Amino acid sequence: MTIKxxxxxxSDTVWEIPVSYKEGMRVPARIYATEKLIRELDEAVYDQVxxxxxxxGVSKYALCMPDGHFGYGFPIGGVxxxxxxxxxxxSPGGIGFDINCGMRLMVTNLTYDxxxxxxxxxxxxxxxxxxxxxxxxxxxxxSRSEFRxxxxxxxxxxxxxxxxxxxxxxxxxxxxxxxxxDSSKISDKAIDRGFNQIGTLGSGNHYLEIQVVRxxxxxxxxxxxxxxxxxxxxxxxxxxxxSRGFGHQVATDYLQVFLKVMESKYGIKILxxxxxxxxxxxxxxxxxxxxxxxxxxxxxxxxxxxxxxxREVFSEVLGNSPEEMGMHVVYDVAHNTAKLESHIxxxxxxxxxxxxxxxxxxxxxxxxxVPEKYKDIGQPVIIGGSMETGSYLxxxxxxxxxxxxxxxxxxxxxxxxxxxxxxxxxEQLQKDMQKRGIYVRSTSYSGLAxxxxxxxxxxxxxxxxxxxxxxxxxxxxxxxIGNIKG
DNA sequence: ATGTTC
Length: 486
Prior knowledge:
The protein is α+β, with helices and mostly antiparallel strands and about 475 residues long. About 30% of the residues lie in helices and about 25% in strands.
């Protein structure tokens, strides 16, 4: 029997693969997608999401969000909540190598007309001040021991040291600092790779974008206003980056640790080595949990310094202070993490380690950890599309409980990077985008080709699926006008 | 994603 015969349509946006599909599945797998997205879905995702459903402690369903695609072990777009009192595991493959890869959005009080002649200058200057590309290093000079403080304190360290405003911290997941980060669980090698990378964008699909909110793209005026979007053709800045080589090394270190002890010490058998894991309540699991929190904080700090640089650049180019230009953070979301959260499962409150790998937390109104400013409307959700097509600001909703309050994180690739490089040319893409009013700079033309809009699912389809399924609600769509691609 | 194959 093929996978398609096992796939049960639960609703217009939810598809289920029962436990009978594969030996060892503890729970069904559920994919969130419209019929169109299901047709486009990489078949490997079915294999990966059902592998996840075999992991010890997995609660309710192994999930895949509408932007799901093939990843390391888990699909990207994968969500799995492990019950830590029922032998639940922690798995680096369910978090991603780029720990706390995430998005931040900042508004301005400027309109498109006020910046249109300065876009090139802004992008060129941002390109200088926010280092991008493989192996790039930042302008924040830290010793290795200072960097150990940064990974324990996150964005708080940055604000204390002059990078940004106190109010920024209130508008970040975990207020910019994940408690319990313990740098004694970090290898010297990870420190070596990360200590000079604060304030850098990275490569791949990481980018920094100047965007405009067109009046016709505001779906909920009241919610938009609550998030600081009130002016027609308002200019905002969005960026996407993570924990660079640091997070990557943390993941690599602990994958090796887990592979050694998983079967011999804990008797866990897995279908794919890439799903290496350890019980959450084990010395190895706890060590990785503390180390991963350092990765989360490195990334929060990285985005905080980048935010500060953006304010500096706008101020330099446009001649007003960041305060005068109303450069306030909307929110900062992580989309590669595992977090210990309390959720109701079959009527009972459970302590779950929610893995979100290429998936965004989307807490509804009144939930704990939603900032006071947004308590009554729900957590802002920032979803980045491809550099050509546009991005979205959404909000979490009460019906998000079905996915442990998680939603999509981006467009999701439809073709491999290698295939995109074969089909598209970076130089031509840059010219085409320029014609359509998007000034783009990149460290690499081949990297640019990999990020061609056509190599991704249609962001509007992904957002539509997420909204129809009731896992997040659209607020505004954002249109790019300038882009720095890592 | 990544000192793009320790």
